[in-house]
Q: What sequence folds into this?
């Protein structure tokens, strides 16, 4: 969390240096005086959560805004919008004084609206449907795959190399254990394999200085190799549980992808020339994914995870390992608004223990 805070402080300095901050007097009022501030809002859980009672909201963005409004002594009212596009248009056309949705700061948006100090850092991710095949069958599939046997062959080759090196030193001085002929090569291979797996039978051990040096090097090298080999197998099994083996951005080019219309993920997919269908809500996208109408749902990671948890889809849908396009969430205001008082209030609040506790509440700490 400390890294998160210092990153935000750094971003504040950068935005001030490059002209993100409006060139307005610091003493200018944050919002129009003597009137209620219109706050644009659209459901975006867990940042904006609509209550059962009309006009009432909760969530991280609301939590932060309500405390900032108290700090700045601002009276406000929420003005709801059905989708992201209409909310952004409302900000651009001065229909609202501020939007407290977690909007990603992008160059395109900066040309049409102001942004405050970022209050949350995240990234895009991919939600995919879990493969419901039998885990045992999946394991067999991986064991008999070309990649598995290639890795196993390479491992045997490395074992043979270190066994051969030990045999070079030991064949004349430790003939009883390592031998002098071809049979000695097999004995050396056996010693190398036993050493790598740390079984330690003790039936063979180098006696010469050269052999012991080779053995010492092989002991440490084997630890690294075994760790990497184990991680590769685990990764292979994990990826094997994902629908269509979608584990990175390149895999999306051959998949049916869905995202939210007007979102940063939509713009990013267009930039990467990845075709996708568009919907207006995460609930709709997850429903399509669960029913098999689409293969992947690309969206902001915290929103993905919260929606999967809320809709109780953990057994059907998961978030793939890939992470891309770091995003900085901030509040948006129409062009020409002073932001210094608002920025200072945001920084003070996100540094507080109360904010950290709220993040932990939504498992975002």
A:
């Amino acid at each position: 969390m400390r890294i998160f805070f210092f990153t935000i402080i750094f971003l504040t300095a950068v935005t001030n240096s490059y002209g993100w901050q409006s060139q307005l007097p610091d003493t200018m009022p944050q919002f129009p005086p003597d009137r209620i501030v219109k706050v644009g809002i659209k459901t975006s859980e867990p940042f904006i959560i609509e209550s059962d009672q009309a006009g009432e909201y909760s969530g991280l963005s609301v939590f932060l805004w309500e405390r900032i409004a108290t700090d700045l002594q601002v009276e406000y009212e929420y003005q709801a919008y059905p989708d992201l596009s209409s909310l952004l248009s409302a900000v651009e056309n001065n229909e609202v004084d501020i939007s407290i949705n977690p909007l990603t700061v992008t160059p395109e948006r900066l040309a049409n609206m102001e942004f405050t100090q970022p209050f949350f850092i995240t990234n895009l991710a991919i939600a995919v449907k879990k493969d419901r095949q039998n885990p045992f069958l999946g394991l067999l599939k991986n064991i008999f795959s070309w990649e598995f046997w290639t890795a196993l062959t390479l491992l045997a080759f490395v074992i043979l190399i270190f066994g051969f090196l030990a045999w070079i030193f030991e064949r004349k001085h430790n003939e009883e254990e390592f031998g002098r002929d071809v049979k000695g090569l097999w004995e050396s291979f056996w010693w190398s394999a036993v050493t790598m797996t740390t079984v330690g039978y003790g039936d063979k051990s180098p006696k010469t200085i050269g052999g012991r040096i080779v053995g010492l090097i092989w002991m440490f090298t084997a630890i690294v190799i075994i760790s990497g080999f184990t991680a590769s197998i685990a990764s292979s099994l994990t990826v094997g549980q994902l629908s269509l083996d979608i584990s990175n951005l390149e895999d999306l080019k051959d998949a049916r992808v869905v995202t939210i219309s007007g979102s940063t993920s939509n713009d990013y997919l267009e930039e990467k020339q990845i075709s996708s269908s568009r919907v207006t809500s995460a609930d709709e996208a997850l429903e399509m994914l669960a029913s098999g109408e689409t293969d992947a749902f690309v969206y902001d990671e915290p929103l993905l995870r919260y929606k999967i948890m809320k809709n109780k889809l953990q057994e059907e849908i998961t978030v793939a390992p890939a992470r891309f396009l770091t995003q900085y969430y901030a509040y948006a205001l129409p062009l020409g608004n002073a932001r210094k008082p608002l920025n200072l209030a945001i920084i003070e609040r996100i540094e507080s223990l109360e904010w950290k506790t709220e993040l932990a509440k939504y498992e975002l700490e």
